[in-house]
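#lab-general

N.A. 3:47 PM
ok so I finally got the sequence cleaned up, no stray characters, all 59 residues accounted for. can someone with queue access submit it? mine expired

B.Y. 3:52 PM
send it over

N.A. 3:53 PM
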Amino acid sequence: MIAATAEGYSFPTNLDLAPPTNGLAPETQAALFQRALIEGITEDDFGELLARMNTATMA
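B.Y. 4:20 PM
back already:
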């Protein structure tokens, strides 16, 4: 389900704004989605995280 709804590729991104945290590449949308499900992140908070991720990759 996650693969059909979220981007699984980390790039392109601005590494100055979205630096790697636990590896060589920033978190993907798919990884964020999976983390949100595991951690019980609310829909509103998930939307905020996605918006921040989009801002970081577009800057």
